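RECORD TYPE: protein structure
NAME: Nitrogenase iron-molybdenum cofactor biosynthesis protein NifE
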Amino acid sequence: MSLQARIQDVFNEPACDKNQAKDAKAKKKGCSKPLTPGAAAGGCAFDGAKIALQPITDVAHLIHGPLACEGNSWDNRGAGSSGSDLWRRSFTTDLTELDIVMGQGEKKLFRAVREIVERHAPPAVFVYSTCVTALIGDDIEAVCRRAGERFGLPVVPVNAPGFVGSKNLGNKLAGEALLDHVIGTVEPDDVGPTDVNILGEFNLAGEFWMVKPLLDRLGIRVRACIPGDARYRDVAAAHTARATMMVCSTALINLARKMEERWGIPFFEGSFYGVSDTSDALRSLARLLVARGADPSLIGRTEALIMQEEAIVWRRLAAFRPRLEGKRVLLNTGGVKSWSVVAALQEVGLEVVGTSTKKSTPEDKERIKQLLKDDKHAFDAMAPRDLYALLAAGKADIMLSGGRTQFIALKAKMPWLDINQERHHPYAGYDGMVELVRQIDIALANPVWETVRAPAPWDGDGRPPAMASGPTETGAIALTRRKFAGTTADDMGEC
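PREDICTED:
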């Protein structure tokens, strides 16, 4: 299938309610939006494909394009690995102008695959196309086929050059690459009635490790967590699972639906953020597995585990409630966190005064409306100056967002907590909920905020000079003027 046909197939997503509500003409056009030149960095289709696949830990991820398309991948995302760190290394063909002019791109790609195989011996190599190599017409699929035959391992083409669309489209194209070349290629000899897949879970800061012990205690085996802390053979055997939980629907809904169509694996969307959502996710997994032939006692054991864990977590959270109840939170994130974190924060008495829905599906937005009782606290996109104005006016006590907007809160002299992919603390599961509340408490109680809000010793009202009325002179400028008052240019010489 050509790239254009693949994109149209991804846009025609039956599992997306928004897509099915369109007429035939609008459905054919799809959900693509033209990218603003210069504003697509970090949000193109290539970036989305690499995000969706890179946490597969033992695979070598090779970027076919100029060096700048890859950069340094060592710590650009906080996904955790319990095994190989090969996924964190930067592999790129590093195409130069001379390579492009002389048509050396495909040969250089083949040599790069050979070097990776000889040095690292990975179970598979994923090759990502980029804008440059797609524009010059390099056939990465043909090269990958030839390299796979030559070196005796899967070499998987991921055809998602940046210019074809947004990061979300890249997520879905990555799912298509797994369907076409990976899933279903390995038949394990230990298939069980309680095997499950977890899709759209990236194990950021190792937070899936907060949930997996709960599943282990229930006897539920995670056949494949895609992509968080995954192994190639686990992903290749994902078609043998009995049920699938989809954590981030905007990323891999096409993968979940097509796995259900091809192999009959039912799926549901859930969240591991918050006490109630974690409990609901465990119940849903248990019900699906029992419906597909697992021991009926699984449902009773799941309820017993939930009762035990909830009693512990509520006792631990009670210590934070007196300090946090009534505090106002501004949530500037997207996707599954736009609604799941809202519910989690409300459970401990925090008030959500606003949440971003920029990367949320219509279903996510409906959940937000139900949680917040209306939609006036949900904003699709808010300019930085508006976020700053809201924080500076004291309408929120803390902002939870990604690293790119932290400086808005810092400029407003308000607490901020990282909740996106760069974070260093896990927030999933029962223990993760306690950690989230603990970090919010630490941020709010930090004495630095009282210090930075206090007037500076040289300013009477603490306001910066630009905010004062009139061109008054303060600080070092005034001191210098008083020191040299009455001094002529001759007295100062050549200083």
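COMMENT: Residues 324-450 form a domain with the Rossmann fold fold (CATH 3.40.50.12380).
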